[in-house]
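Q: Please design a sequence for this.
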């Protein structure tokens, strides 16, 4: 399906300069037809990007209004909602808001992957506590 890029909400704080360069190279070749659709989750009146931030950013830079997308069926919806909230706290509401958050590959890996590890641990504890509270309330 085609989704308007302006309807996409990031769940990622940074972009990799290397990944973006690789996508740009694909975009300039005939292989753009073979680029996988991005993965999304419905959330309110927008769609959360679960995979494909670099592809969405490049599509926007290339002047496209829409991008191919498919619904993510891998689960983890609660995590993505928390990631989206973390983005909003940093004033990242759209793909274009990542413009000043493009990092060299080694910095991207250090900042993003380390942040994700810590965030995922905290989020797991939070979601477990909420589930435990719900279980106690239903007994």
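A: Design:
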């Amino acid at each position: 399906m085609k989704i308007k890029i302006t309807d996409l909400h990031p769940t990622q704080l940074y972009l990799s300069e290397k990944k973006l360069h690789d996508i740009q190279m694909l975009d300039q070749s005939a292989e753009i037809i073979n680029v996988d659709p991005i993965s999304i989750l419905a959330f309110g009146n927008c769609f959360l990007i679960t995979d494909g931030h670099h592809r969405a950013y490049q599509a926007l830079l290339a002047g496209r209004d829409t991008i191919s997308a498919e619904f993510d069926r891998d689960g983890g919806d609660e995590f993505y909602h928390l990631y989206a909230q973390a983005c909003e706290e940093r004033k990242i509401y759209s793909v274009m808001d990542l413009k000043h958050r493009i990092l060299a590959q080694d910095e991207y890996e250090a900042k993003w992957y380390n942040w994700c590890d810590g965030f995922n641990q905290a989020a797991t504890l939070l979601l477990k506590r909420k589930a435990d509270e719900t279980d106690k309330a239903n007994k």
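Q: Thanks. Anything notable?
A: The first helix runs from residue 17 to 27. The longest strand covers residues 38-43.
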